[in-house]
């Protein structure tokens, strides 16, 4: 659930003071290629890098930035550090704490990035945070990624082009690439430091997604990419929001004006999938986003599931003018997917439960 695709924040000044998050002293990135991209010294908006092709491709957004960095460009391994309390907000009035072992921390031009080990999750306890908020762990990142991607693509039946907004950890791209109909996945990630960090410290999260020749990683603002695609009359079958929380600097990407742009970007039977937040602790945000979706799209269908890393029930939604994701019979397609892929969360048995909104939360989710 990543963004890195925050926008509008000025680059971090060289005189920025060190901060402490989870007991990790942050730093301004060293003078490496990825650091220069992150600080805005190299063109970041337009770079694409395809590892499988091992070359830069000229993207329609014109200029090309530096390639993704080699692993040696990331340093400051703090994996031997002692356990420390690691707090995270849960809506405006609550929070939660994990015991965490610091592994890596850096401040890019856009945000503070941390990698920590969480003993509570055992061997899969490695997780990362952006600006103090947990994004994903190896233990449960698949929950949101599978729930956002598979119901939509299975209902569509022949999705070929998928756009991931944010998604610098590669998890959403990984799930989309499980579908043989998919010919292209474009990942629009603002902060080059996010995929660089994930490929170094949590490579199984992407599980080779950035090495797949169908994947193109675009380092740039998602809004600019969408505007450029609309100007070229492009169309996508699915748009997956894998952004930072909607109450932060990605808020403008979660409102009706941007949803209307995505509606124009969708092809026949196209749909979007996005995360809404925690309905128990962010009720106003969840309701506001659903209202915005319903003002733009004909079909708006929320779902909910528990995400351990977030410490609560989590809400997601699908929206489309022509695709009824919840009402589509994708039984045969789902069985075909499960016969060749090992999913960890989504299944036909869980599908009905995912779309079943608890009665006590109906006031938050509104008209279904």
From TrEMBL:
One Pfam family cited in the UniProt record for this chain: Spermine_synth
Domain of life: Bacteria
Occurrences of domain PABS (ranges): 86-321
Database matches in InterPro entries: PABS, PABS_CS, SAM-dependent_MTases_sf, Spermi_synthase
UniProt binding sites for spermidine: 145, 169
EC number of this enzyme: 2.5.1.16
Self-association state and partner proteins as the record states: Homodimer or homotetramer.
Protein name: Polyamine aminopropyltransferase
């Amino acid at each position: 659930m990543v963004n890195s695709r925050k926008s509008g924040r000025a680059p971090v000044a060289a005189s920025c003071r060190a901060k402490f998050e989870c007991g990790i002293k942050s730093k301004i990135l060293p003078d490496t290629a990825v650091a220069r991209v992150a600080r805005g010294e190299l063109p970041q908006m337009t770079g694409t890098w395809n590892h499988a092709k091992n070359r830069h491709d000229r993207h329609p957004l014109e200029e090309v930035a530096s390639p993704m960095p080699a692993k040696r460009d990331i340093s400051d391994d703090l994996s031997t550090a002692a356990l420390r309390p690691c707090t995270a907000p849960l809506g405006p009035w609550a929070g939660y704490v994990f015991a965490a072992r610091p592994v890596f921390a850096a401040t890019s031009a856009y945000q503070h990035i941390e990698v920590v080990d969480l003993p509570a999750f055992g061997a899969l306890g490695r997780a990362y945070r952006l600006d103090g908020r947990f994004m994903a762990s190896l233990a449960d990142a698949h929950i949101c990624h599978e729930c956002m991607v598979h119901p939509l693509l299975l209902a569509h039946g022949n999705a070929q082009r998928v756009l991931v907004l944010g998604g610098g950890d590669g998890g959403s791209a990984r799930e989309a690439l499980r579908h043989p109909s998919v010919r292209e996945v474009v990942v629009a990630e603002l902060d080059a430091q996010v995929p660089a960090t994930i490929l170094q410290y949590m490579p199984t999260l992407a599980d080779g997604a950035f090495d797949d020749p169908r994947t193109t990683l675009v380092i740039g603002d998602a809004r600019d990419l969408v505007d450029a695609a609309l100007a070229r009359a492009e169309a996508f079958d699915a748009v997956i929001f894998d952004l930072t929380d909607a109450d932060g600097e990605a808020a403008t990407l979660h409102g009706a004006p941007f949803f209307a742009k995505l509606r124009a970007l969708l092809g026949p039977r196209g749909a979007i999938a996005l995360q809404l937040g925690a309905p128990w602790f962010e009720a106003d945000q969840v309701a506001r986003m659903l209202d915005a979706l319903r003002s733009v799209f004909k079909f708006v269908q929320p779902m909910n599931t528990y995400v351990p890393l977030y410490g609560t029930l989590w809400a997601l939604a699908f929206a489309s003018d022509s695709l009824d994701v919840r009402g589509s019979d994708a039984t045969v397609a789902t069985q075909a997917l499960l016969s060749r892929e090992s999913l960890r969360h989504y299944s036909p048995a869980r599908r009905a439960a995912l779309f079943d909104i608890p009665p006590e939360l109906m006031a938050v989710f509104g008209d279904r």
